[in-house]
């Protein structure tokens, strides 16, 4: 069984690397791998705070700049974060970080780590492409939000959490175009492809490891199911 997790950069490195999270997250994954010998994981790591900081610097210095250049900066941030996760999990991850999800080699270990690929979409899209390549039916999207809301709860106190939503309704919320640094629960381009494939995406809070363990073990959890 292959579990694909889009590991948000906002939880790996919100501004700098969250070492305590990485220690606890790695321990949880190790526990699951030991308990379930058939389980394998693919982690696709986002850029987080470093990506946004460097993108903002570029746009400031270059008087706006181009989306393609800003996207490349974000891609490079994902690769640094992914290399860190791969190194931390080297016991189970013998392969190099995947940077092209369409050319990923068969898994040699029980963990595979991937980073951003190229401009035009976020690491969420890479997670969808890897789910397709490795025949997974679900992508778990871990970020700093517990659930998808009807609106931004930071701006609208009337916004309500959503337990389950169709792809049609979700895509109406997030649109169809990707903008570097865009803050949405799941990348619009990735959403379109996941919808076409019939994939299920589960959005949950990455730092709530007790909840994540329940999700990974098939127990009741807090999150949003899309699909």
Instruction: Report strand order across the widest sheet.
Output: 3-2-1-4-8-9-7
Helical content, roughly?
40-55%
User: What percent of residues are in strands?
Assistant: 15-25%
How do the helices and strands follow one another from N- to C-terminus?
A: EHHEHHEHEEEEHHEHE
Tell me the radius of gyration: 17 Å
Number of strands: 9
Shape: globular
Class computed from helices, strands and strand pairing: alpha/beta
Discrete helix count: 8
Cα distance spanning the termini: 20 Å
State mean pLDDT (0 to 100 scale): 92
Low-confidence stretches: none
- Largest β sheet strand count, sense and barrel closure: 7 strands, mixed
Q: How is the topology of this model organized?
A:
Elements: E1 2-7, H1 9-12, H2 19-35, E2 40-45, H3 48-61, H4 67-88, E3 111-114, H5 123-133, E4 138-143, E5 148-149, E6 161-162, E7 164-165, H6 167-174, H7 188-197, E8 200-205, H8 209-216, E9 224-226
Parallel strand pairs: 1-2, 1-4, 2-3, 4-8, 7-9
Antiparallel strand pairs: 5-6, 8-9
